[in-house]
Amino acid sequence: MEQRDVELIQRYVTNDKNLEALYREHLDYERQLEKLNNKPYLTPVEEVERKNLQKKKLRGRDEIEQILAQYRKQETLS
């Protein structure tokens, strides 16, 4: 995630519970993926889990991006 996105999230996360939940979920998926990616070998079950985590993380990232786009639009109108 880009630094400007993280800064925007930090600015609005305290007032936006949906954004907060999505961001926490995103970080959790990132940690889980990091654990799997650090293994020298993945079992077939772990490989499926890794793919599912990547998809969930991407879906969540898309939702976060939609929320951030709304905040960016509000900031430019202000």
- Average pLDDT over all residues: 95
Number of strands: 0
Alpha-carbon Rg, integer: 15 Å
Biggest β-sheet, characterized? none
Question: Which range best describes the helical content: under 10%, 10-25%, 25-40%, 40-55%, 55-70% or over 70%?
Answer: over 70%
Name the structural class. mainly alpha
**Cα-to-Cα separation, first versus last residue:** 25 Å
β-strand amount: under 5%
The shape is: elongated
Q: What is the domain tally?
A: 1
The unreliable regions are none
Tell me about this structure:
The protein is an all-alpha fold and 78 residues long. It has one domain. It is built from 3 helices and no strands. It has helices at 3-12, 17-37, 44-77. α1 (3-12) packs across α3 (44-77) and α2 packs antiparallel against α3. The model has no long low-confidence stretch (mean pLDDT 95).
Brief summary:
Helix content is 83%, strand content 0%. It is mostly helical. It has one domain (3-72).
Secondary structure layout plus pairing:
Layout (H helix, E strand, L loop, with lengths): L2 H10 L4 H21 L6 H34 L1
Helix pairs in contact: 1-3, 2-3
Defining traits:
78 residues; 83% helix; 3 helices; mainly alpha
